Predict the 3D structure of the following.
Amino acid sequence: MNRCYIFKINSGCRFQIASLVVYYSFLQRKERIFLFLVGRLADIGKSAIFACMKLEISDWNMIPYAGAWSRQTEWFDALVHAKQAGECYVNHIVLCEHPHVYTLGRSGKEGNMLLGEEQLRRIGATLYHIDRGGDITYHGPGQLVCYPILNLEDFSLGLKEYVHLLEEAVIRVCASFGIAAGRLEKATGVWLEGDTPRARKICAIGVRSSHFVTMHGLALNVNTDLRYFSYINPCGFIDKGVTSLQKELGHEVPMEEVKECLCKELVNLLS
């Protein structure tokens, strides 16, 4: 499936982009997706300078959390360095799933992890203290994780607007499957019936930002084993539930369809 989009974006290079054409292509095996942003730059002196800024969308499939954290940190550091040095760089959006793992953000409380080390081993899970905002959450098979590593200034976004954009992308994904989702005041993420006693979270969001470059991202419950959330106070909440696309629809949802839909919505919102 091929789609074409027209973008207007500020280049991460040291030149001003006049226009951008975006080519959006899912490769046959859907392992990697590339967006090529080709910009026609302003004349400098008597020379017309052309450059290419690339946004690369990669599917890492199932990957241990430690490996994914290391790889996205490497890409994050490279983007920050290139931006500060005035060099061209690559923005990334990463899709993946993880084996059973819990992550605790910088502002998280240890007490929201309800299991000890031995109990974690029994359920085949691990716990990581990580460098994002937010409290504790779970990642596991059947959950779609998305790690955008972006220079927000390329998209004229502040951090608050960026989080809002991630939420909006997931809200639109849910709507495409016939599920009405939305936001909950003072609670980052995407919720169903958020203003009722039946409020339940379908997507957690936690990001890190430095020099307006982001890492970490969102975790959307697709066909997730929700029992693993019972071992924590998800995102620090003790009075709200969690859900998944599968639970709401009553049947398993093809992960590839959700990946494709999320990518489409992110591209549209970043344009």
